[in-house]
Automatic annotation (TrEMBL):
One of its GO terms (cellular component) is cytoplasm. Signal peptide: none annotated. Residues 195-207 have a biased composition (Polar residues). It comes from Euroglyphus maynei. This is SDE2-like domain-containing protein. It is found in: Cytoplasm; Nucleus. Keywords: Cell cycle, Cytoplasm, mRNA processing, mRNA splicing, Nucleus.
């Protein structure tokens, strides 16, 4: 009959041979495991599990091969971690905003909700167009029946004043431009005449 366990040191499955119908005390079982691992009896403390329960007394295999778990207990801390978590939790503000969370497919809930809103907007777009067309037809119908005035009066004193002054401003600008052009033409003509008078004649050159 065999007692099989997985070593926590080299992660290998190992076998202990025991006699059929032998009842193995816990201390004896631990001693055999330590010898199998080439460890001294006082070098390490460990516990054994069989069928999910901790072995606290003798082990009775009942004539069959069994598998036991070997684990090394870890000493706990001083405690107080739970109270610290509760204190921190009391300081955290509760929120219903889960937009930054992800669904099972890894997508942000913000993106999923935005996609839903866009789909709803597209579905309602045809209804909005129908509503706009309906409002236009009703307005045209009311205009045709004379219920709505079609003429609108635009009243802006500054704009009206500027609009009436525009023709005078244009005429004055044109007049100033023509006068300046005439002055430039007269100046160019006088310069040309002066140049002609000062040039030597052909007769003087022959002499």
């Amino acid at each position: 009959m065999n007692i099989i366990y997985k070593s926590p040191f080299d992660h290998q499955h190992k076998v202990l041979k025991v006699n059929k119908d032998e009842i193995v005390p816990l201390n004896e079982l631990k001693r055999r495991i330590l010898l199998k691992e080439n460890l001294s009896c006082s070098s390490i403390n460990f516990d054994l599990l069989y069928n999910g329960k901790k072995i606290v007394d003798n082990l009775n295999p009942n004539g069959t091969d069994i598998f036991i778990h070997l684990f090394i207990p870890i000493l706990g801390g001083k405690g107080g971690f739970g109270s610290m978590l509760r204190a921190i939790g009391a300081q955290i503000e509760k929120t219903t905003n889960r937009e930054a969370c992800r669904d099972l497919s890894g997508r942000r809930l913000r993106d999923v909700n935005e996609e839903k809103r866009i789909k709803e907007w597209i579905k309602k777009q045809a209804d909005r167009k129908k509503e706009e067309e309906k409002k236009k037809r009703e307005k045209l119908k009311q205009i045709a029946e004379g219920n709505i005035a079609t003429n609108c009066k635009y009243d802006d004193e500054d704009f009206e004043k500027f609009r009436t002054e525009i023709p005078d401003i244009i005429d004055e600008s044109i007049t100033q431009g023509l006068q300046k052009q005439q002055q430039q033409s007269s100046t160019s003509k006088r310069k040309l005449e002066t140049t002609t008078d000062n040039s030597p004649s052909d007769n003087d050159q022959d002499q």
